[in-house]
From TrEMBL:
Gene3D superfamilies: FAD/NAD(P)-binding domain. It comes from Thermomonospora umbrina. This is Cation diffusion facilitator CzcD-associated flavoprotein CzcO. PANTHER family: FAD_NAD(P)-BINDING DOMAIN-CONTAINING PROTEIN-RELATED (PTHR42877:SF4), L-ORNITHINE N(5)-MONOOXYGENASE-RELATED (PTHR42877).
Length: 484
């Protein structure tokens, strides 16, 4: 196995595979994809819980350069998305560039050689360019609950689902009610004897306009590429319009909120249960969830919604602050991810021994969410301020692919060995983000995975996706320091 490359990519999800494809097509062939797992897929490889599916329509949640016309349903499920990524990696010749089972632990920029020295579980690599495609949703977050390690039965996070655990006819505690939980709770309710859903904060759950694609519909998309492009463009425009409510005019979310409350009253007849499912924050402040079977599952005889705060995990179950202990056979944590830490636990050291965790001690920041001052030739995909609440992240990733390619082409054309975004450029972008985030729905009084511990939103892009594409259309040479 070679140890020296021009470009090293960390991660093989949509970001890593897509970036590698674009690099090869642009003539950058000397690359390696370092992946800690045993295959590609990123979050769609890791999240194999029952019911795992996307909440963005399939035709938007795919690369523009590799359209798929035979999705089985409007909102694809995990196995089909994973198959699509594997197909892309194989079709475009990326799989031979992948080094699976290779976890990156540290990356250090060597100022003498102008190379990144990358320490991994399989030895050291060097690369002129380092691209992080780790994503924001790759490190499961477990709650800091007393006694969490004392439970006697199976206990696992939904992103590390224990398929060997027999949950049929068992009593199961589900802790958390986020995007994953609302998908697997209905599946658990079909097989478990009892499911206790421990809710800290009620989510907004609205109808999922899902459907199975007919054979005739798929044939039409396959035979008429223009029809597929039109379908994708229509979906994009429809979702993009929602940015106005999230970012510009949160009051425009009122009709959707009214529809939510009306649907909740129809679906949940029990007034006490319904009251427990009403969020105490504005719609959109946290991620809006899509499901057609979550609320019906909660009304079933084998499911209990628990809104009392958890006091501790015991060897036999879960005890709440009211003194009630619910004995269970298994605990499933649907408690999300450590989304604001980005490159952690990988240690990254830049120029003059600067540590990335120190540079980000008051919150992650990067120019356009891609480049970090003091860390030459380091590019982030799905970095700070590039997450969305209204459209497909694949669109954002493809904007970043083009920007990174622009930087690398400029370096190659000018014979440069390194570029580094100027600190004043990065600081100006950071101030712009803080100013534009004021007044958005994400800063309307809730705690979410978009925020750091001090309440600073560092994940989301405060605008339209087409405005981000315009901002990343081409790198500005004036924004960078450079050297040969």
């Amino acid at each position: 196995m070679r140890s020296a490359y021009e470009i090293a990519i960390v991660g093989s999800g949509f970001g890593g595979i897509g970036m590698a494809i674009r690099l090869k097509r642009a003539g950058f062939h000397d690359l390696v994809v370092l992946e800690k797992a045993d295959g590609p897929g990123g979050t769609w490889r890791d999240n194999t819980y029952p019911g795992a599916a996307c909440d963005v329509p399939s035709h938007l949640y795919s690369f523009s350069f590799e359209p798929k016309t035979d999705w089985t349903r409007r909102f694809a499920e995990q196995p089909e998305i994973l198959d699509y990524l594997r197909h892309c990696a194989d079709k475009y010749g990326i799989t031979p560039h992948c080094r699976f089972g290779t976890e990156v632990t540290e990356a250090r920029f060597d100022e003498d050689t102008r190379l990144w020295r990358i320490s991994t579980s399989r030895g050291e690599f060097t690369a002129r360019v380092l691209i992080s495609a780790c994503g924001q949703l790759n490190r499961p977050a477990l709650p800091d609950l007393p006694g969490r390690d004392s439970f006697d039965g199976p206990a696992f996070h939904s992103a590390r689902w224990d398929h060997a655990a027999d949950l049929d006819g068992r009593r199961v505690a589900v802790i958390g009610t986020g995007a994953s939980a609302i998908q697997f709770v209905p599946r658990l309710a079909e097989r478990a004897a009892k499911v206790h859903v421990f809710q800290r904060s009620a989510p907004y759950v609205i109808r999922k306009p899902d459907r199975v694609y007919t054979a005739a519909g798929k044939a039409l998309l396959r035979r008429l590429p223009g029809w597929h492009a039109l379908s994708r463009a229509t979906l994009y425009a429809r979702f993009e319009a929602r940015a106005v409510g999230f970012v510009k005019r949160p009051e425009l979310m009122a009709p959707m909120a009214w529809g939510f409350h009306r649907a909740l009253k129809t679906l949940i007849a029990d007034p006490e249960l319904r009251e427990g499912l009403v969020p105490d924050y504005p719609l959109g402040c946290k991620r809006v969830l899509l499901s057609n079977d979550y609320y019906p599952a909660l009304t079933g005889p084998r499911v209990e919604l628990v809104t009392e705060r958890i006091e501790r995990i015991t060897p036999r179950g879960v005890r709440t602050v009211d003194g009630v202990e619910r004995e269970v056979d298994a605990v499933v944590y649907g408690t999300g991810f450590r989304s604001t830490e980005f490159l952690a636990p990988m240690k990254v050291t830049g120029r003059a021994g600067r540590k990335l965790n120190e540079a980000w001690r008051d919150g992650a920041h990067a120019h356009l969410g891609i480049t970090v001052s003091g860390f030459p030739n380091l590019f982030l995909l799905y970095g700070p301020h590039t997450n969305l609440g209204h459209n497909s992240i694949i669109y954002m990733l493809e904007s970043q692919f083009r920007y990174v390619l622009g930087c690398l082409r400029a370096m190659r054309g000018a014979g440069l060995t390194w570029i580094d975004v100027r600190p004043e450029v990065q600081d100006a972008f950071r101030r712009e983000m803080r100013e534009r985030l004021r007044g958005t729905v994400w800063e309307r009084g809730c705690r979410s995975w978009y925020m750091t511990a001090d309440g600073t939103v560092v994940n989301n892009w405060p605008g339209f996706t087409f405005s981000y594409r315009n901002a990343t259309r081409r790198p500005d040479p004036r924004h960078f320091l450079a050297g040969r």
